[in-house]
Amino acid sequence: NYPATVLKTGIVGTVTYEYVNGEVYFSDTVATGKINSSLTVVPWGCPNPQTPVLAPTTGTMPIGEYTVYTVGVLSTGEESGSSEAVKITLPQGGGITVNVGTLANAALIRIFVTSTNGTVGYLQDSVVPGSTATITSVASSGREYFPEFTIPAPVSNIIKYYRGRIYVVIGAFV
To answer: How far apart are the first and last CA of the chain?
Structure first.
């Protein structure tokens, strides 16, 4: 006989799961989650941040259009998908004030900005949720971020770990 402990109630349908590095990632037909090493059910990943609010300010940035988006980071280092991209056009000598808003469970919010009229975002700053950052110049090198296809893990019917990534299958789609 093994004792049973209820970790989560309200499971709907079949549960699929995958054990990775001491944690169990799971999905039923309506929700996803993670059971950590303390046997606590926690959200699987970080929700996407809200769209940042931008305002022009002074700086040293060249005239042109810039795209800004943000990414939430949990205390474990897990990143969310990105916020919606916001574009701003600046005059010569401009800068950007970025209000990142709040984000439940996030320890940090990373701010990515493209170079002048660019398409690839580069990490410019990391701030606590609910704060504002001022970007006065853009580093066009370093950590790149491509926001395509970055969403929180959806409800799925298969979960598999392969080469450092967790893949989910929904019907015929990976």
So the answer is: 38
Number of H helices, E strands in the chain: 0, 15
Q: How far, in Å, CA of 68 to CA of 83, rounded?
A: 9
Give the whole-number percent of the chain exceeding pLDDT 90. Answer: 60
Q: What is the pLDDT of residue 149?
A: 60
Q: Find the radius of gyration of the CA atoms of the chain.
A: 19
Q: Which residue has the tokens 């979960």?
A: 159
Backbone angle region of 30, left / alpha / beta, with phi > 0 → left and psi within -120 to 50 → alpha? alpha
The whole-number pLDDT of residue 147 equals: 62
Write out 90-114 in H/E/C secondary structure.
Answer: ECCCEEEEEECCCCCCCCEEEEEEE
- Helix/strand/coil for 138: coil
Mean pLDDT score, 161-170: 90
Structure-derived torsion over alpha carbons of residues 145, 148, 154, 158, reported in degrees to the nearest 10: -90
The mean of the pLDDT values for the chain is: 91
Whether pTM exceeds 0.85 = no
